[in-house]
Write a structure and sequence with these properties.
Layout (H helix, E strand, L loop, with lengths): L46 H26 L1 H15 L5 H34 L3 H21 L6 H21 L2 H14 L1
Helix pairs in contact: 1-3, 1-5, 2-3, 4-5
Length: 195
């Protein structure tokens, strides 16, 4: 027999008063200490950029409005198609007229929706200081302005011409805002922050 008194079983969850043994040493050594980069300071977007982004959203609204004009101006589209067919010497077959109106309507809707999508994409990308977006927006404005000048030589409904003129004017104001010095500083700061 042993001289030690019998030990009573410890209840579950009982903590010993002595500290637990230290963990065994790591055979692979200590983990390296990494210097974390300092937290990037938030970049404040220039007021000119805020206004440019807002106006781009307005441009998206104008594009959606142009989609609605396709349906409102259906009679004027029909008249223009019939006059164009008469001038070209083509007979006024109702099936041809209806097909031409359907194609013009679908084309107008697609162009309007794509335009609204491009406006919103440019608002998003420029608002985040993406330098490529400013260049793309400039190219798109150039295309829009050239298209407007060409459209002046074509017969066009008054409302449609007003919307086109507003869109080009809006684009010109946005270009001035995007290329201001404070906007350029914002693009540079955002580019440096991403590197």
């Amino acid at each position: 027999m042993s001289d030690q008194p019998p030990t009573e079983p410890r209840p579950h969850g009982f903590q010993s008063s002595s500290p637990p043994p230290p963990p065994p040493p790591n055979p692979y050594g200590a983990a390296p200490a990494y210097d974390l980069p300092p937290a990037a300071e938030p970049v404040t977007r220039a007021r000119s950029m805020d206004l440019a982004v807002l106006l781009m959203r307005v441009g998206a609204g104008l594009s959606l409005l142009s989609v609605l004009t396709v349906f409102v101006l259906g009679d004027q589209i029909r008249t223009a198609v019939e006059e164009g067919l008469q001038e070209s010497g083509t007979s006024l077959d109702p099936g041809v007229v209806d097909a031409a109106i359907s194609v013009a309507t679908v084309f107008g809707v697609i162009v309007g929706l794509l335009g609204a999508g491009l406006w919103l994409l440019m608002a998003w990308a420029n608002g985040r200081g993406r330098s490529w977006a400013r260049i793309v927006a400039t190219v798109l404005f150039g295309i829009s302005a050239a298209s407007f000048v060409f459209a002046l030589t074509q017969p066009q409904a008054g409302l449609e011409r007003v919307l086109d003129a507003l869109t080009v004017l809006l684009g010109a104001v946005i270009m001035v805002l995007l290329w201001k010095r404070e906007s350029s500083a914002y693009y540079a700061a955002m580019s440096a922050r991403r590197q």
